[in-house]
Every structure is written in C-alpha cells, then in structure tokens.
Amino acid sequence: MITFDAESRCFHLANDRISYIIRLGAGKYPLHLYWGPRVRRVSEDLLSALSAYTDETFSLHGLPLDRLPQECPTYGCADLREGMLQVRHADGTHALDLQYESHAILSGKPPLAGLPSARGETAQTLVLTLTDGCSGLSVRLLYTLWEDVDIIARSVEIVNRGSAPVVLDRVLSACVDFEQADFSLLTLSGAWARERQPFLRPLVPGDQGVSTARGASSAQTSPFLALLSPGATEEQGLVYAFALCYSGSFTASVHVDQDFTARAMLGIQPFGFSWTLASGERFQAPEAYLCCSAQGLGGMSRQFHRLVHRHITTGPYAQTARPILINNWEATYFDFNEEKLLALARQARAVGIDLFVLDDGWFGHRDRDDSSLGDWWEDLRKLPQGLGGLSSQIHAMGMKFGLWVEPEMVSPDSRLYRAHPDWCIHVPGRLRTEARHQLVLDLSRPEVRDYIVEAISEALTRGQVDYVKWDMNRNITMWGSQGLPAGRQQELPHRYILGLYEVMGRVIRRFPQVLFESCAGGGGRFDLGLMCLMPQAWCSDDTDAWMRCRIQYGTSLLFPPSVMGAHVSAVPNHQTGRSSPLFTRAAVAMGGSYGYELDLGKLPEAELAQIRELNTRVHSMQQLLLYGDFYRLRSPFSGNDCAWMSVSPDRREAVVTHVFALAQPNTKPRLLRLRGLDPALDYRDADTGRVWGGDELLSRGLRLETPWNDYQAQQFHLVALPHGESRV
Ligand code: DGJ
Predict the structure, then answer these.
(1) Are strands 593-597 and 564-569 parallel, antiparallel or unpaired?
(2) What is the 3-state secondary structure (H, E, C) of 445-503?
(3) Helices in 564-720 by DSSP H: which ranges?
(4) 61: pLDDT confidence band, cut at 50, 70 and 90?
(5) CA of 488: how far to CAs of 34, 139, 496, in Å?
(6) Measured between alpha carbons, how far is 489 from 479 in angstroms, rounded to an integer?
(7) Residue 346: other Cβ atoms inside 10 A
(8) Claim: this prediction has a pTM higher than 0.90
(9) 139-155: string of b/e by CB count within 10 Å (b at 16+)?
(10) Neighbouring-strand partners of residue 634
(11) Is 629 among the residues known to form the active site?
C-alpha cells in the first residue's frame, strides 16, 4: 500500500480507493502533493504542481516554502504561515529547519507511547524522519494506511538528539495544505445538554476553526472538522475530514492565505501549553485521522464508524450487542436506599432489562452534590449491606450490576481532601475555584494516580461490578501542580490527560470483562481518545427525544451508534419539560446503546407492557442498530423531521427510524427515500408485512404516516425476502 519512487522522490500511500502522495522537495523537504480519490500514478502534471519552485530556487534564502504545501511546516524559518511545530531553543530563538534524514515502511502500526491510538494489524506505516541540523531536534512523522478504511492516521514524535534542552511551544499532529480553498467548513459545537450541533460556513481568508482550553475535548466543541467541496452533500461529493484521538484541550483550524490555498491543522491546544524536552527525551503527539470521502458526509461518517468498530474500540463489548440498562439517576437522584433500588431493579428485570446501574450518591455521605468525591466507600446509611450486598441481590435476580464513579474529582468536604489538600489542581495562595462544589485531582502526580486506581479497583471488586460509568463533571481552572517545577507548569494540561489515560488503562486492565462507559456531565468529553479505552460514552444529559435527534444526528457525523449511550427517560422531560410518546423516546434511544433512566414504578401497566415489547425488539435488532452501515436521511436542523437508518453489511436487513417534530394539519403523506439497500431485492417490513422493491425504496421511498400530534416516530424493520420468493 505504501511505495517510494526514488526517481520522483515520491511516497505514494494508496489503498483501492484513496491516494496520499508526498514528495521530497529538493530531496529534503516533505511536500504534500496529493490527497484524494485513488490515482494510479504520479503524473508529470501532478509533479508540475510544484514546478514553480525548482530544486535550485528551493532554499531558505528565498521564501519558496511560504507558498509550498508542506507535510510538517515549522515556525521560524522560511514559512510565514502558522506551522505545526514551534520550539524555543536554549538561546530563546525559534528557527527549525527540518530536513529529510531517512524513511521506513513498516507493516502494521506502532503504538504511541502513553497515548491511545488505533490498532493497525492490517495496516502499513510510513515513518519519515526529519532533523534540524543546528539543534539536533529530530521529528518522526508517522502515516498509517489501512486496506479497509479510507482514513490515514498521522502522528508526530519529537526526539531531542541535541545536547541542550528545547522547549516545545506548539506540537500539532497533522497538517494538510490544499491547493485551493473553495470549501465549506463543517464543525461541531454546543454546550451541556445540546452537544455536537453541526455548523457550516464558507472558508474565507484568514483563520477559522474550533478550539478549547477547558482541559477536556468538551461539550462546547469537538476535535473534528470537515471540508466540503463545492456541491458536496450528505451522499455526494468530495469531503475531507480531520479528527483527533485526544481527550484534552485541542485546536482544529484552517488558514486561508494570500493565494487562496488552505492549510488545515489539528492537535493539542498550543495556548497554555509548553513542554521542556531535555537532551535524549521524546515527546509523542496524539494521533489524527484524515478521512477522504467521495460519497459526501454520509460516506465520511461510514468511514469513521468503520474505523471505530474495526480499529479503535476494544474489549469484549467492542463488537457485540450491549446489555439494556436501567440507571437510577433520573429515577431517584441522590434520594435512594437499598430498598428503593431493589424495587427498581425488580421492576426492571420484570420488563427484560439486563443491567442495573447505580449512579451518583452511593459513597461517603453524599446526599447532595457538595461532598464525598474521593471517598469511594459505601454510605451504609443508604446501603446497609454495602455494595457487595446490593450487587449480590441484583445478580440473584439475573441482572448485571453497574456502578457510577467520578475518579478524577475530590470534594473539599471529603476525607481524601482533608488528608491531602495539595492533591488537587490549584495555585498556592489563590482561590481554589470550585465547580459543582468540587476540585480536580492532579493526575500528573503518580501518588494521586495510584490512589485512584486502588480506591476504584477496591470498590469495583467489593461491588462485583459488571459495568462502570466513569463520569467527570467539571472543566479545569487554576492550573497548577505541586508536583511540577515552575518551568514545567505549562505541561500540566497534557500531563493531566496522560495521567488520565494511564489511570483508565490500569483500571480497565484489572477488570477486562467489565463494560466501561465514559461520561462528562453528559457528553462533555466525547472523543476518539476515550473510545480507544471505553467502547461507549454517555452522549448527553439531555434525553428529550427531539433534542436527542439533534444531538445524535451531529454526533453521528463522527461516531457510530454503538458508542452513544442513549436512554429512555420520563415525561415531562427533566431537561426540556417536553412530553413525547414512549415509542418515540425508545425509537430515538435505539439510535445508540440503549437503556432507561426513569422510575418504572410510576408507569402504568400498559407502558410497562410496551417496554417489555420494546426490549424484545431491541434485543432482536441491536447488532444491526449498533454496527450496521449508518445513513442519515433527514436532518433535524433543516426541517420538521429527522430520519436515519442502519443497513446490514449484506444489505438484507435494515431498520429505518423517522421522527416528526410538530404535527401539521392538512398535509399530504410524505415520502422518505432510503439508502444503502440492494435495488434487486424485495424487502418486507417485519412489523406490518408490507413489501417493497429495494429499487422503489431507493428511488421513490417509503410513504410515511401523517402524524396526529407532536413528536411521533415510525420505525420500519426491513428484511429481504429469500431469493426467489416473489413480492406481493
Ligand atoms: C452527570 C451525568 O451526565 C449524569 O448522568 C449523572 O451521572 C450525574 N453526573 C451524576 O452526578
């Protein structure tokens, strides 16, 4: 898949569908020549794209690098644009002239030290080593290409082979220079309870993009951007997308320059970051994924979903159906005891729920959100038989038992804080700014990491836990670590994330059979980095069906349904006050890893019976719902309805879900054109027995029932008729 042509000095990374070509300009600068649908060879014309700059003029004495597309532009030499790397040498200067030293083509994909990354058993990796002769700083650029996904993984490792320390002020993970900037930029932005909403805008000269300095990948924006070529739509046209495998502060930006070319870059947020690299030390930047889709945004999403399923998520649940869970949070909040929990669990078991999850409030003396984080032992007032007693009784009912934890935090009102007041992130002498009455533990310190691993492991062992919800409910302020010297304080944001990955990795390795779900005050840290560790994440605290249509629609641009925790909750909804039918709430939650979060004891018998049926339905379709090829059919951002479908790999089965928002009187039934089906097959709706030709569903579509009342959902479970069976 990866070849080097010595004559043209070109590296060609190609699978059957995409090509990425790098040329060594003047034999020493890796220039970006092409990225897009597969080309068979590097033509003269392609090479001549760089011909304005001959090898002779190619030097730091002129400014040709300023106009050349570069794979690893640096700040401080001949390129006047912002680059991927910016350093400070011992003498305070910035210049960094990285020239080709060597390359290697590896089979597979090396893991990244200290950071999560995709697996690459079936991949090949190009390693380009560049060196700055004056300082001895060496940079390894890694490019991985898979056979089965149209995505290239890029990462950067910096090695200080000089004798003096170097300060890294900016280390981004990827840069792509596009010859033209005629794109629209798509990003995801939001807030608590309305995470990951898509925003589209044309590129204009200057800088544009998204970033965060909150210490987490955040609800406010996501480490992702896509560039849509003119005319690109949901299902057609060329789209280039970038996503970062990282859970901390990041930047993802596009710079449009004087020639109307575009430079897209992403990586660790440089604002508030610096890292001292002593002689002989290495720095590893997170991995970025570059996706090129010729099938519009839908094609892009299906590539990312495939990457997640085949190369990112791990563990026993990575490719299997997930247990249907019930979480007690919105049923009880902090007001529970063993009796109440067991009653809820019994009701849950009776309707076919597989997993009971005990949320916040089981430890210390936490009756509100203002105490006890860090004290991970049971509150015997609420659980007189401890976690073990509760969990044994739930196991005896034939259910699994899950537990909420928030390991990164400490409440000022806790034994942990009283014993170790310096273990939180803070600046001595300044106010310890609290959010939700809590402080953040300093995960850069080994003793803090060890405490968390031991305390959480003990709780999971005592509780014989099968599932963990790992929450994180505030962003970080007053950055300061008692474990770091003054000159290294700006390393803390990244060291925190490295510490987090280490702690999570150690706990997960101790409990390999447990299903882990990450959470951050809803979907406030929903990124590919955490998905390498935990195969699902709580998508949002907003469980209102229509808001979830919007949140899950935006989330699906990058993430598959399998990773999106999605629950049926009570009406009126606790976040919006809105009421929607039970079936609608369930149909929307089936767009993710399905569960409940309500007091079943308050539901009428008819709704409990409906839930029993819904659970049977989820069990029978879940593999398809979670892992099928996903198609967005109607956007809730552009109209009064929303629709999506999942199709099995053999195209013989599909589930189509449609939700109307507000009912409108006197309207003709609408048609919903489907995608991904086989036009040659006939499909029967398993619920109604109606039959259509795949060709008709793809061209004319399904006729939808006109809704009576607001927020009505319809779902179609299409199963192909056996070969030879004629349609009705
Ligand atoms: C925030 C989460 O998103 C909720 O689901 C719940 O677990 C609360 N934290 C508990 O404090």
Answers:
(1) parallel
(2) CHHHHHHHHHHHHHHHHHCCCCEEEECCCCCCCCCCCCCCCHHHHHHHHHHHHHHHHHH
(3) 582-589, 605-627, 694-699
(4) low
(5) 39, 22, 13
(6) 8
(7) 16
(8) yes
(9) bbbbbbbbeebbbbbbb
(10) 643
(11) no
Task: Say if CB 304 and CB 288 are below 8 A apart.
Answer: no
Q: How far apart are CA 342 and CA 391, in angstroms?
A: 10
Question: In angstroms, how far is CA 303 from the centroid of its own chain?
Answer: 14
E strand or H helix that includes residue 330: helix 329-332
Look-up of token digits 């730091």? 60
**Residue 18 backbone phi and psi in degrees, to 5:** -130, 155
Residue range 294-302: average pLDDT?
A: 98
Active site residue 471: yes
Q: Average pLDDT of 669-690?
A: 97
CB atoms closer than 10 angstroms to residue 480 = 17
- Unique residue bearing structure tokens 């009756």: 367
Question: pLDDT digits over 173-207, tens only?
Answer: 999 999 999 999 999 999 999 999 999 999 999 99
Q: Which amino acid is at 143?
A: Y
Beta bridge partners of 226: 186, 241
Residue located via tokens 């807030």 = 191
Ligand 1 neighbour 234 (Cβ under 6 A):
no
Q: How far does the centroid of ligand 1 lie from the alpha carbon of residue 522, in Å?
A: 7
- Residue in 330, 372, 404, 436 to alter for ligand 1 test, most ligand atoms within 8 A of Cβ: 404
Q: How many CA atoms lie within 13 A of 345 on its CB side?
A: 24
46 close to 34: Cβ distance less than 8 angstroms: yes
Which residues, in sequence order, are CB contacts of 723 under 8 Å at separation 6+? none
Q: Which atom of ligand 1 is nearest to the CA of 522?
A: 3
Cβ atoms < 10 Å from Cβ of 665: 6
Residue 632 in contact with residue 301, Cβ under 8 Å? yes
Ligand 1 atom 10: the closest Cα is on which residue?
360
Residue 369 has pLDDT above 80, yes or no: yes
**C-alpha span between 586 and 604 (Å, rounded):** 16
Angle in degrees, CA 205, 240, 524, rounded to 5: 90
**What pLDDT was estimated at residue 333?**
98
H helices, E strands: number in the chain: 13, 38
Question: What is the crossing angle of helices 338-350 and 605-627, to 10°?
Answer: 70
Are the C-beta atoms of residues 466 and 514 closer than 8 Å to each other? yes
Terminal Cα-to-Cα distance of the chain (whole angstroms): 48
- Which residue among 97, 132, 442, 541 is the active-site one? 541
